[in-house]
Fold this protein.
Amino acid sequence: MISSLKRDRSLWVSADCGHEYRLADSELFYRDKLPSAALDYKESLDDALAELQKEVKEYREKLTKGFTKKSVEVKLGKTVEKICQVLPDFPYSPFDCRAMFDPIDYVVFVGASRDLISQVDFVEVKTGESALKKPQRQIRDAIVDHQVQIRKVKQ
């Protein structure tokens, strides 16, 4: 049947796009017996699909690893900020530290353990490449701009 359709030059086809052409000029096929041009096109689409699937898989893995790594870093940071005042490299006496954890980790009254406070430090513990968050930067800026006061409030 396909060979007789290819021989008949009087049959015309109208495509969805409005283009009309002779049926005999088209690549006719039956079921899965695709012509070579269609096979080549299908193969290129299969290759492109496989490449996209590979990219999606790699992207998913990257997101998962990135999320997992970030999650571990955050949890580690939260743990370190809670115990750092007893670690050997911490530059303050743990007895001088008062924990706040939010928005600043510690207020350190340097010398408080010896009844001789010489300085008050605001300490934010960071691990890795962590940067100060906006409220922490604002606190730093208030301190730098000498906008720190002590007030006595009567109740």
Notes: The mean pLDDT is 87. The first strand starts at residue 12 and ends at 14. The chain has one domain: 29-146.
